[in-house]
Amino acid sequence: MKFTYNQVAGQKIQRIEALSDGVFAIALTLLVLDIKVPIGDAFKTEGDLLAALCSLMPRFLSYFLSFMTLGIFWTGHTMQFSFIEKSDRHLNWLSLFFLLFVSILPFTTAFLSEHISFRLSIAVYWLNIFALGAGLYLHWWYADKNGYTSLAGEERETVNKAVRQRIIIAQTLYAIGALLCFISNYLSITFIIIVQLNYAIAPRFSRRQKK
Q1: By C-alpha distance, which of 164, 180, 202 is closest to 68?
Q2: CA torsion, points 122, 126, 73, 25, in degrees to nearest 10?
Q3: Which of 27, 158, 160, 196 has a 20 to 30 Å separation from 168 between CA atoms?
């Protein structure tokens, strides 16, 4: 039996999982490199040094925002691979394009922290988040469509609905957060962080069972 290259390429999901973890780890590390320690001879008092430290707050805010962003998308990507048991060349490339937008996040983060008072910086950052969400959605859609997951029957329907719904709702909230920049950039960033904290912490409220 003859096989073409495209039929046999990209079938080792362990390789793309390892690469994904590596790209996320590097991107998470690069985020902090945008925060430079204040140095120089201009600091004569504790107040001078404190003022210099306070001037870095926009960068710390952007760092926290992006660390949460990468953490959420890494968790989502990892969750998908906990159900994906097969792969092909196309799914492999969908993962690679998703990682493309992961690796560019340190740049959009630095752009945001450097120009935090401009709406364009919010727009560029939001486009990065949108691309990540779209990539994650397409990755799951393709895997589910081609039967590459370990799910079947009612479980497949339930998990598929939960994955798609989570991405769509999150992206809708991110878009609302981005639009808030027309009121205030800091309000926009704060709203997005609150959304991220909700997804990261995933608060659960216990319900009393009815007897």
Answers
A1: 202
A2: -50
A3: 27
Look at residue 69 and give its three-state secondary structure.
Answer: helix
SS3 per-residue string spanning 103-171: HCHHHHHHHHHHCCCCHHHHHHHHHHHHHHHHHHHHHHHHHHHCCCECCCHHHHHHHHHHHHHHHHHHH
Query: Where do the structural domains in the chain lie, given as residue ranges?
Result: 19-201
For residue 56, the one-letter residue type is L
* Chain centroid offset of residue 189 CA: 15
Burial class (CB in 10 A: 0-12, 13-18, 19+), 3: exposed
Cα dihedral sign, 18-19-23-24: negative
Q: Using CB atoms within 10 A of its CB, is residue 62 exposed (0-12), middle (13-18) or buried (19+)?
A: buried
Cβ atoms 106, 42 nearer than 8 A: no
Q: pTM higher than 0.90 for the full model?
A: no
The string of pLDDT tens digits covering residues 46-84 is 888 888 888 888 889 899 999 999 999 999 999 999 898
pLDDT over 70 (residue 5): no
Assess contact for 62 and 109: CB atoms under 8 A. yes
In this structure, what DSSP letter does residue 42 have? -
